[in-house]
Amino acid sequence: MKHLKLKLILLVLLICLAFASAAFAVKPLIDGAEKSVEVKQAVETFNASIGVIRRESEEKKEVIPYANLYEAMQTYNRQLYLFKQNKLDSKSAYEQSQFTLTDYGLPDEKFGVITIPKMGLEMPLFLGASEENMAAGAAVLSQTSIPLGGNNTNAVIAGHRGYSGYPYFKEIELLEVGDEVTITNIWGTLTYTVTEIKIINPNDVNAILIQKDKDMITLLTCHPYASGGKYRYLVFCERVKA
């Protein structure tokens, strides 16, 4: 009888372990599905909002919607280049955005949408690489250019190498020279093509600085995948001129 009870206890434990293992394996799939819905909704919300903004701008006969914000951001970009990005010297420097978009009348803090067809990726884009923004999509490092286009700009856009079951920049190594990346903001859509790929040490700040006379974005993520971020993977992209 004792042996029978022991066998029953062991059987129950094995069943519990099996259920726990299954739940552990399924959780990333559930998290990923939830995050996929969240990201898709964020993109759709942004696209709907810029549709409204552009229609209202046309009705008001505005040349540039939110002109005060646009000019402030252009000034910020010019000053970054003029002062050689001298404040890009710490983690806190690139986390905190210099602009609170809702202060300018925008509905939330989504700056735009980044689309990378080769990776099958479309995500909301935020200003400031804080933990909150990185969890919600891709994020422009503060003290790097805001992606508005123009010479002497380089917007460094960071993304997780997979997070909470969602890929983010996980498949970044699919990108090759010539592949396309687009940024849509409330003022229009900017198209870039990949020109160079580089792997750097995390403290190599010089690799992400503005390059004279170039209109750029740089994608940044950890490397190798699932390694704890020993290196950084950079994808340099230059603007396709209209």
Would you mind describing this structure in some detail?
It is a single chain. With 242 residues, the chain is α+β, with helices and mostly antiparallel strands. It has one domain (26-239): Sortase (Sortase, Chain: A, Beta Barrel), CATH 2.40.260.10. Helices cover 35% and strands 27% of the residues. It contains 4 helices and 10 strands. It has helices spanning 2-59, 67-82, 91-95, 131-136, and strands at 110-116, 121-127, 138-140, 153-158, 161-163, 166-168, 180-185, 188-200, 215-223, 231-239. It has an 8-stranded mixed barrel. The chain is globular, with a radius of gyration of 22 Å.
**From N to C, what is the helix and strand string?**
HHHEEHEEEEEEEE
Count of separate structural domains: 1
Measure the end-to-end span: 84 Å
Counting DSSP E segments of at least 2 residues, the number of strands comes to 10
CATH fold-level label: Sortase, Chain: A
| Strand-residue proportion | 25-35%
Describe this protein with a few key phrases.
242 residues; alpha+beta; eight-stranded mixed β-barrel; Sortase, Chain: A
